[in-house]
Amino acid sequence: STPFINSNNDGEWNYKDKNMALYEEEMDSAPMVASLLNKLAKYTNLPQGVREHEEAEDGVTRVAVPQMGTFIGVYLPCMQNILGVILFLRLTWIVGTAGILESLAIVSMCCICTLLTAISMSAIATNGVVPAGGAYYMISRSLGPEFGGAVGLCFYLGTTFAGSLYILGTIEILLTYIIPPAVCTDNNGLTMQNNMRIYGTCCLLLMALVVFVGVKYVNKLSLVFLSCVVLSILATYAGAIKTLIEPPEFTVCLLGNRSLKNDCFETCSKTEVFKNNTVTTELWKHFCSSEYSNATCDEFFTLNNLTEIPAIPGLLSGVVKDNLWSNYGPAGIKIEKTNLHSESPQSPSTDNDRYFVFNDITTYFTLLVGIYFPSVTGIMAGSNRSGDLRDAQRSIPVGTILAILTTSFLYISFVILFGACIEGVVLRDKFGFSVKSNPVIGALAWPSPLVIVIGSFFSCCGAGLQSLTGAPRLLQAIARDGIIPFLQVFGHGKRNGEPTWALLLTVGICEIGILIASLDEVAPILSMFFLMCYLFVNLACAVQTLLRTPNWRPRFKFYHWALSFLGMSLCLSLMFICSWFYALIAIVIAGCIYKYIEYRGAETEWGDGIRGLSLNAARYALIRLEEAPLHTKNWRPQLLVLCKLNSELQVKHPRLLSFTSQLKAGKGLTIVCSVLEGTYMTRKEDANLGEQNMKATMTAERTKGFAHVVVSSSLRDGFSIMIQSAGLGGMKHNAVLMAWPAGWKHPTDSLPRRNFIETVRETTEANQALLVAKNIDHFPDNQERLKEGAIDVWWIVHDGGLLMLLPFLLMQHKVWRKCKMRIFTVAQLNDNSIQMKKDLQVFLYHLRLDAEVEVVEMHDSDISAFTYEKTLKMEQRSQMLKEMQLSRTEREREAQLIHDRNTASHSVVNDKTDGATPDRVHMTWTKDKLLNERNKHREGMAVKDMFNMKPNQSNVRRMHTAVKLNEVVVKNSKNSQLVLLNMPGPPKNKKGDENYMEFLEVLMEGLDRVLLVRGGGREVITIYS
């Protein structure tokens, strides 16, 4: 049995989902909960990264199931990225130069900075899914496309320069410790830099080729690289512990208190006994003119003795006391042991300086901060792999924070161990020349320095390859977002998605870092870009927390806006501590990118925090604006532009919007509105299309503001609603701008005239100013430049000063800038025109307006026959229009009555009589009614003959004023670029509405560009400061 009453087609009913029949219509557009959950369960947020490229190269599609846990997926990648080149090549030198205490301060500052950033990052990363792009995605979706693009590019540049840093580290290890003979010529500074450039470029090209050919090899070797880092760290700890039992055999040779390079001699003495004979050593030959004992020697060599001390005294030696304090110095100064005395020669010689160990750069605290900071970067590695994690929202915070705590412990313990185990002169020896060209950390390591050399070499190679793999993908993610138009070419790549063009750009930028050829100079550049990125991560978290947006629900709960602000402040401070010069450059680069995206970028809405911040600020400002009325000094025209759309829903008068932008110069509120007749249900699509077209025209005409299209039963009601309700709170319009209704004289359509007059009445009632532009299509567009001419103001009655303020605002725009302002006022018979002119000039001087003043005398004169005849014709025309309107209304009423009777008869008559009746009724009505109407018309014309009419005296006087004023205006302002006139108000008695339009037409006759101005009933300009 069927559940439906009177159902005859049971077989056609479909009972699927009949339990939810009530929601059938909703199911067409919205999914059921079960299907939604099913889709979410199948979703994986795997980025189009390395694994997809591997699959494309192999031709095999693997089942993508995220399996990595916290340790493998986040902890180890972060550890591998954080521990690197600075640890092995510069940390001992930083400890020796800055001392243990200041080194601990540097390490603590940098580690606290990254820890606070990691807390903020954890909050953002656990507030939803983070796809490909890592830090860029988090920042852009939290702070918007402008900040996201700026910081994304900074992060990209940071990652790219990190590649340069690692490659320079690789080449430094290669040329200094592995194959020193590969250096082309002798080891002075400039030659070494050129070697770094040549070998670094070759290494970069080789790495780029590896990345281009197969990323999968880089991925597979990452475990090998990590193993090298771990082994090197374990070897260092083992060596430090071994010093308790037996210190290493490395010694340092000191001449006086100066450290010597011991790679060029074996014995640290001036002479030695060989076969019972005292002979000079190899060292003697370096400082003396010959090998004989009577040779002439360097004065410093003669005055001072040679001392050999252990390079690694060990943990129990007490050397920690000597290494507590800093030893900064200028470039070129020789490294000396502070508690040893040496005799200084009377005439110092520099001939043998190459045998001493000296500072290659000037050292100071802030420089060391900039060099050290790259060693704590890499905290984003976990968030970049969020797609590979089993539970990203748990793994990212735990893994990242544990990695930072672990590496912070390692760095702090290394600072203390290095200071407690290694001699100060050795610590300050950056390249290990005093310990037979071994890395200083290698001299401490057990069982051999080779462990550190090989481990650090492979670690730097791996880190460089990973930078060259990650940076192009980051650039590709930014390019594919489409927020920076000129980067879109880098969104393309090979068929498998490999970012070829992005890789080429990355190699080019990386080469710039290699051409700098100094690890110490590249490190601060890298620090700037990473600090900028971390700063905005903290800002994003702080903004989201303070805004309390409903979508801000991170699973990681141990965050606070104060911590984020502290992290942000620390990042900014570190930027200027490292290098104020580089910090300003990084800020300028980020600022330029921000403004470029704001100006040219694609319009995207990501639900970012800056939008929320803007909304909060706007709400606060609107509430504040409503608290007190606006002062005259702050008054500016807030325009409601009544715009008409044509049949194709395009803006009918685009020049109206041009004039708006010229009047506002982008300042203040502009609301452009239009009205469509009908119902919203039927014309919703038209309203949306009209609004889009309006916005497009506003963009083309450079009008900044809001567009809105209203659907109403009549145009009059729609515009009335807009005049009453447009705007919000204190940001409401105070002036209405519209075009003069050109079709108001149409004999059968009185709507334009009635709508216009009602708009004038409503704006007056609402205390809003009204601006009416005649011949708006003749007004200049934004590309025109008026070379000369005048803007004439005809000041008949005082309207609050709006007439004088408008030309001033117009002349701020480049279109009207070269025009001059002239003010005309009218003097009656009893007025002193000379005194009026003087008073007006003083008034304008106090208003700070530059304008020419003219007083036009209009004496009482007899009303001319022309005026009398013009008034008569106006009244006759109005009378005819009234009668035509009345007869048409009666015809419509009679037709409706007959139609109703006819409809009623249909319910009782048979179907046979249907069809002929309407025609018969219609024909009968037409014949009789037409005769009646003609008779009535003839009778009316007979009674009130056109030639016997006498015009109304009030109308004659009004027409006389319009004609005389028009004559004066045309005489003085016919060639002006724009004429501004006081707009007289409509008659209080609505019977004179037809004549009002005629008066205005006569007033503007013979003028091209006219702006009728009606004040809003308040002062808008003041003489007071």
TrEMBL record:
Lipid bilayer topology: Multi-pass membrane protein
Residue ranges annotated for the Amino acid permease/ SLC12A domain, each copy included: 74-244, 363-640
Organism: Cyprinodon variegatus (Sheepshead minnow)
Protein's cellular compartments: Cell membrane
PANTHER family the record matches: SOLUTE CARRIER FAMILY 12 MEMBER 7, SOLUTE CARRIER FAMILY 12, CATION COTRANSPORTERS
MF terms in GO: potassium:chloride symporter activity
Residues annotated as domain SLC12A transporter C-terminal: 654-769, 770-1025
The reaction(s) this protein catalyses: K(+)(in) + chloride(in) = K(+)(out) + chloride(out)
Family: Belongs to the SLC12A transporter family. K/Cl co-transporter subfamily.
TM helices/strands, residue ranges: 82-100, 106-139, 151-178, 198-215, 222-241, 361-381, 401-426, 446-465, 501-519, 525-547, 559-590
Main location: membrane
A GO BP annotation: potassium ion import across plasma membrane
Key words of the record: Cell membrane, Chloride, Glycoprotein, Ion transport, Membrane, Phosphoprotein, Potassium, Potassium transport, Symport, Transmembrane, Transmembrane helix, Transport
Domain of life: Eukaryota
GO cellular component terms attached to this protein's record: plasma membrane; synapse
The protein, known as: Solute carrier family 12 member 7a
